[in-house]
Amino acid sequence: MSDERDLAGKKGQMLPGIAGICMFMIFMTMLNVYAGLHGAFGQGTAKYGILALCTLLAVGIFGLLRLKKWGWALVSAGCLLLSMGDFFLFEKIHAGFFLVRGMFSLLFFLYLVRTEVRDRLR
Q1: SS3 of 32, please?
Q2: Which class for 86: exposed (0-12), middle (13-18), buried (19 or more C-beta within 10 A)?
Q3: pLDDT > 70: percent of the chain
């Protein structure tokens, strides 16, 4: 009975980790948009695919800051996709930067899927 009251009192309150994850993800989104606009991903469909994914992630970030479940879902998927892409690049290029960034993204994904985070969403 007291758990239900505690949960109802905490619903709608943001955890500090969510704000940090959103700052990291908006920074990564801005870097990918900049790289995409300057031709780092080529001039074909990959460029527009990256820009579309960045748009979805930016919308998800602002939804997560408002503690919406759809924002949480988009940012969680973005964290997982970013970490898998970084692990793939590390395996192909063997640059340690991608391993570190991939581990951070995976850590943020694991933070977002905790029940304490999901219980606070609207």
Answers
A1: helix
A2: buried
A3: 92
